[in-house]
Amino acid sequence: MDPFDQVSHTEDGQLDPFKTMGILDHVERKNIIGTIVGHPKDTPSRKEIKYYNPSISEANLSRHLATLEECGLIDSASKQREGLNRGESYRYYRLTGQARELFDRLGVFGPVPYKNLLEQVEKSEEIRAAEHADRPTF
């Protein structure tokens, strides 16, 4: 079943909790959400998401990010590519307000445990620089 077919909103326009959690019934999608929630700026680049989730192939990462965005769980924003250094990230992701509200209501994906976990990960210089890079406006 296509995950896009599973997503709907409740009568008040909020994400449907049962269908949303069904979308997240996939370990790689859960890990991506955990990475976004745990990021120091709450807006990791694709490069950072991949670094923290090395077992996810590039193709699957693209597919999962697209699914999560289409379902209304995450937003993305891009920097202008002009003026970026080679290899510098330009696309960033964050939770939507509706996703954060739903997760808070359900008591899942609280930021503190995920932030603590990501702080313990040994980071390359490239990833440390990426964490401190300016983010685009969402």
From TrEMBL:
It comes from the Archaea. Transmembrane segments: none annotated. InterPro entries: ArsR-like_HTH (IPR011991), WH-like_DNA-bd_sf (IPR036388), WH_DNA-bd_sf (IPR036390). Gene3D superfamilies: Winged helix-like DNA-binding domain superfamily/Winged helix DNA-binding domain. This is ArsR family transcriptional regulator. It comes from Haloferax namakaokahaiae. The lineage of its organism: Archaea, Methanobacteriati, Methanobacteriota, Stenosarchaea group, Halobacteria.
